[in-house]
Amino acid sequence: MSGSVLFDAPGPNAIRRSRILSIVFAIATVVLLGLAAYQLWLGGAFYQDRWDIFGRPEVWFAARGLMAGLGTTLSIAGIAAIGAMILGIIFSILRNAASRWVRIPTTIVLEFFRGMPVLLMMLFILIVFASGTYWSVVWALVVYNGAIIGEALRAGMKSLPKGQRESGLAIGLTPLRTTLAIELPQALRIMLPIILAQLIVLLKDTSLGYIVGSPEILRIGRQLVDFYDREGGPYALSMFFVLLAIYLALNLSLSAIVRWLHKRVSRPRKGGPNLDGTKTEAVPVSTQAMRQQAGRDPLADSTRYPGAGMEGGGG
Amino acid sequence: MQAIFENLPLWWQGMGMTLLLTGVVTLIGLPVGILLAGMRVSPVAALRVVAAVWTEVARNTPLTLVFFFTAFVLPKLGFIFDFTLGAILALTYYTSAFFAEAVRSGINSVPLGQAEASRSIGLGFGQTMGLVVLPQAFRSVLPPIINVIIALTKNTSVAMGFFIFVLTSVAQRLSTSYGDQALQIFIGVALSYLIITVPLGQAVDYLERKWSVQR
């Protein structure tokens, strides 16, 4: 449901009122932000000496500089994303296994993994397996997100029409081949936006490495703040803004990709041409879908929907 | 397990803080989230923009960075307060965006025809929302809200890195003094989280089954 249905196309009075409200609110926001900025300025946040370290190359490119931290963050996220996908696929297959002896323990283990905080799992792997901070973060993210992706894939497979599995079995594929070749690809397609959104969460969760002690960007940032100022830390705020900008740039661009994919995936699939060579069209099932068929008048077209029986069918 | 039972007061301390953070943040964050969701569908453009920026920025910032802000940056700017209050601030800011998204998805799940019908009998924005859309959105909104609370319960663990003693800190402290029982300690603490999250998850399943409506 789009927001615009909730209120009329505004008339002149309403437009004026809404514009006044908008302006009042915008001014209030700007004033508030301005006050905050002024407060910061009084505190000296915008002085040269709060930002000068970011002009030095060693802050970015030294062995323990921000770029190295960003590299660690991205490499943890990358390795963990691939691992979580693989583990998720394995989990979803085990979770659907025919044997109760596989299915039920997997379910319990998955519930267990999904119910505990990632941070606890990181500490656990760090302390019990003594795997070092970097790999404890990677492994915890793999296991936790693998469990979540596994559940998503299972839900995707469950949402498929039953005939998909039945026809796979009917043409003589083994149950495993049916899952791998028929159900999983479709489940992946359906669940792609959810899985990608989870991978963004994974990227954000790499920052938990700060607490465990892996040298990712947040930890490096903290160390730089401490290193450049031992008396009171004037770089804390500027470092926060730099880190915020980096994370936002990363995550927002990934979110944009996810949204684009979501639109692509949720678009009705186009079939081949009809027998008479005309194009097939997806049937809009809601008022909204009708509206979305751009540049066409839904009423004029409604006679051509299947069941309306005016055109074609008879031949 | 032995170690946990021997240190029950410590466990209670962590459990209490986890529950406290979860409860307080839900109580503050949920109204903020509902307000944000309402702003996001409102006719006033400025409200929409502010709510959109708030939710998008909060959802795309790692929680650890928000904690970093409340625990290290704010004190440097002269705002000095209790670490617990800082944790509540950070968690509320972060979680309110997720509450807002849950409510908004619930509003979106009400079929378009409902809003169209109430518009066509002459109800205004406030009436459409208050009398028609929100009451129907409520049932589809509760399960995702509980899911946000479950995520919040787990997110309170991040406070551990910022001087707050939550359940996860219990695991860390005990496993250093009882090195040989680390495995049991971690399983015990994980189970403690499950004590909170599993009933909530069951409630989601139950509500989804009970309230699923054919549309």
TrEMBL record, chain A:
The family database entries (InterPro entries) matched by this protein are listed as: ArtM/GltK/GlnP/TcyL/YhdX-like (IPR043429), MetI-like (IPR000515), MetI-like_sf (IPR035906)
Report residue spans for region: Disordered. Answer: 267-315
This protein's membrane topology, according to the annotation, is: Multi-pass membrane protein
Q: Where in the cell is it found?
A: Cell membrane; Membrane
This protein's GO CC annotations: plasma membrane
Q: Which PROSITE patterns match?
A: ABC_TM1
Q: Which CDD domains match?
A: TM_PBP2
The record's listing under Pfam families reads:
BPD_transp_1
- Which keywords belong to this entry? Membrane, Transmembrane, Transmembrane helix, Transport
**Superkingdom, natural source:** Bacteria
Q: Which GO terms describe its biological process?
A: amino acid transport; transmembrane transport
Q: What is this protein called?
A: Amino acid ABC transporter membrane protein 2, PAAT family
UniProtKB/TrEMBL annotation, chain B:
Domain (ABC transmembrane type-1): residue spans on this chain:
15-204
Tell me where it mainly resides.
Answer: membrane
> Is this entry keyworded Chaperone?
no
Listed Pfam families: BPD_transp_1
**How does the protein's chain sit in the membrane according to the entry?**
Multi-pass membrane protein
Please list every transmembrane segment annotated in the UniProt record, as residue ranges: 12-37, 49-73, 79-100, 144-170, 182-201
Location(s), subcellular: Cell membrane
The protein's GO terms of the molecular function aspect are: transmembrane transporter activity
Q: Name one GO cellular component term.
A: ATP-binding cassette (ABC) transporter complex
| GO BP of this protein | amino acid transport
InterPro entries from the UniProt entry: AA_ABC_transptr_permease_3TM, ArtM/GltK/GlnP/TcyL/YhdX-like, MetI-like, MetI-like_sf
Which UniProt keywords are given for this protein, alphabetically ordered? Amino-acid transport, Cell membrane, Membrane, Transmembrane, Transmembrane helix, Transport
Q: Which PANTHER family match?
A: AMINO-ACID ABC TRANSPORTER PERMEASE PROTEIN YHDX-RELATED, MEMBRANE COMPONENT OF AMINO ACID ABC TRANSPORTER
The entry assigns this protein to a family as follows: Belongs to the binding-protein-dependent transport system permease family. HisMQ subfamily.
User: What name has this protein been given in UniProt?
Assistant: Amino acid ABC transporter membrane protein 1, PAAT family
* Species: Agrococcus baldri
